[in-house]
């Protein structure tokens, strides 16, 4: 995907970063530079007005400018929070479709990743590039480097354990469950037909997850998708919440033949791997996804 000297864009489409995060951004820029990449930073990274790093048009145009710039080989969002879906009406999807390049983000960026797929058919990457500077950075840097420079699959190689069923195949949509559901009723929600739906969450308890899972049921998701993949549900799992996410999903879907698989390798953890939104995956009970 990359060669040494490639230029990459760095944006913050969701909440602006805190001023106290400047050291982290500096460390990330050094890490990327050490990997022989050339990061170009959007002017709208840090919050200047409440949670906003810039107006919606400024943030949208910063992203689009990186799509327009032929020298930029990929774009990484380093934000998260609540406000990424504000950009959806301000993005030029024809420009994105005509200038396709890898866009990476996670959590609240679920909204933009899925909107890009829905409007353009271009895949995007559910992954937080700041994993390269957190506690597991040695392994993350190794996997990232091997994957994007050496055409290996270590960042994408995810082990799934089937809860029920034994295989599924389809294009993956989804991401953070709370953020994905912001797309409900909008033209940015992907079609569920024959898709694999991936869901994860950082916060929330059993009651909140029940709300979200029931909303997906009422949207007709489970009648149309080819299978369900579950990532980490961080707070529920840390608190050993009962019922857990597997019990909730199994009860709400209420179909023992419906394929459901779980992993601890995709989500908000600093050990998280990368799942590609808009790519076709084949998952079975004897293989990892690659």
Q: Kindly report how far apart the N and C termini lie.
A: 15 Å
Mean pLDDT across the residues is: 97
Text of the CATH class of the largest domain: Alpha Beta
What characterizes the major β-sheet? Answer: 6 strands, mixed
Which fold name fills CATH's third level, the topology of the largest domain?
Rossmann fold
- For the largest beta sheet, what order do the strands appear in spatially? 2-1-3-4-5-11
Can you offer a commentary on this structure?
The chain starts with 6 loop residues before the first strand and ends in a 6-residue tail after the last strand. Helix 7 packs parallel to helix 10. The strands form two sheets. It has a six-stranded mixed β-sheet with strand order 2-1-3-4-5-11, sandwiched between helices. A six-stranded mixed β-sheet has the order 6-10-9-8-7-12. It has helices spanning 22-34, 56-68, 93-98, 110-120, 137-148, 177-180, 206-218, 221-224, 234-238, 245-253, and strands at residues 7-11, 38-41, 72-77, 103-105, 124-126, 161-164, 167-176, 196-201, 227-233, 260-262, 275-277, 280-284. It is built from ten helices and twelve strands. The chain folds into two domains: 7-148, 3-Layer(aba) Sandwich (Rossmann fold), CATH 3.40.50; 161-284, LD-carboxypeptidase A C-terminal domain-like (Glucose Oxidase, domain 1, 3-Layer(bba) Sandwich). The longest helix is centred in the N-terminal third of the chain and has 13 residues, at 22-34. By secondary structure, it is an alpha/beta fold.
């Amino acid at each position: 995907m990359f060669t040494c000297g490639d230029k990459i864009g760095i944006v913050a489409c969701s909440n602006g970063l805190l001023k106290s995060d400047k050291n982290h951004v500096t460390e990330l820029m050094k890490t990327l530079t050490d990997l022989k990449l050339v990061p170009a930073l959007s002017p709208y990274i840090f919050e200047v007005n409440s949670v906003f790093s810039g107006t919606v048009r400024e943030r949208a145009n910063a992203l689009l400018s990186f799509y327009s710039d032929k020298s930029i080989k990929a774009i990484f969002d380093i934000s998260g929070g609540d406000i990424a879906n504000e950009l959806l009406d301000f993005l030029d999807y024809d420009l994105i479709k005509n200038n396709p390049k890898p866009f990476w983000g996670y959590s609240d960026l679920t909204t933009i990743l899925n909107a890009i797929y829905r409007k353009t058919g271009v895949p995007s990457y559910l992954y937080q590039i700041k994993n390269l500077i957190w506690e597991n950075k040695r392994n993350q840097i190794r996997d990232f480097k091997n994957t994007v420079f050496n055409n290996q699959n270590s960042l994408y190689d995810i082990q799934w354990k089937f809860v029920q069923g034994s295989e599924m195949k389809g294009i993956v949509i989804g991401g953070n469950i709370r953020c994905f559901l912001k797309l409900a009723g909008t033209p940015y929600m992907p079609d569920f037909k024959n898709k694999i739906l991936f869901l994860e969450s950082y916060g929330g308890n059993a009651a909140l997850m029940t709300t979200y899972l029931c909303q997906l049921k009422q949207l007709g998701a489970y009648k149309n998708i080819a299978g369900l993949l579950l990532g980490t549900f961080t707070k529920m799992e840390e608190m050993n919440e009962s019922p857990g996410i597997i019990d909730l999903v199994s009860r709400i879907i209420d179909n023992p033949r419906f394929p459901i698989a779980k992993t601890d390798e995709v989500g908000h953890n600093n050990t998280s791997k990368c799942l590609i939104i808009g790519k076709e995956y084949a998952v079975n009970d004897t293989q990892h996804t690659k």
